[in-house]
Amino acid sequence: MNIIEIIFGSLLGFNYMKLRIFFNHYFPEILACIFVILGVFGVLHHDMWRDELQAWMIARNSHSLAELYFNLRYESHPPLWYWLLMLIQRFSLNPISMQWAALSIASMNAWLVLRFSKYFTYFWIFFVL
Q: Rounded distance, CA 94 to CA 25, Å?
């Protein structure tokens, strides 16, 4: 228990143990929700760049996995992202769906790290922001 937590808890009239239980149980989920909200704002206001659209077009123009491997011969990235893009394009031809897929993967990753890490709560805040 550090001095900031004691002062914060005593100024607001919280019992320190209740505050600690609240932080342990709900703080990772609250930060994950903040991460998702900031991510949605970012997806809605982000213009796609050439490298993002290049990955989308490579996956769009590949009609099979063999053709995808052939089209990836000059790319330095592993093919897992392109496989996912091929799967997404079976449902939507809009490149913005790639951004939503990236946000969902990043949100799941943020929640896993926030929920199961043994770091301090201050690290969690810097991780989300």
A: 38
Q: pLDDT tens digits, residue range 62-101?
A: 999 999 999 999 998 889 999 999 999 999 999 999 999 9
H/E element, 23:
helix 16-44
* Phi, psi angles (nearest 5°) of residue 92: -145, 140
Concatenating the DSSP letter of every residue in 1-20 gives --HHHHHHHHHTT--HHHHH
Cα gap 11→38, rounded to integer Å: 30
CB of 47 within 8 A of CB of 53? no
Where are the chain's structural domains? 25-128
Distance CA 87, CA 125 (A): 33
What's this model's pTM, rounded to 2 decimal places?
0.76
- CA atoms of 38 and 7, how far apart (whole Å): 30
| Cβ atoms 70, 77 nearer than 8 A | no
How many angstroms separate the CA atoms of 63 and 58, rounded?
10
The CA distance from 16 to 24, in Å, is 12
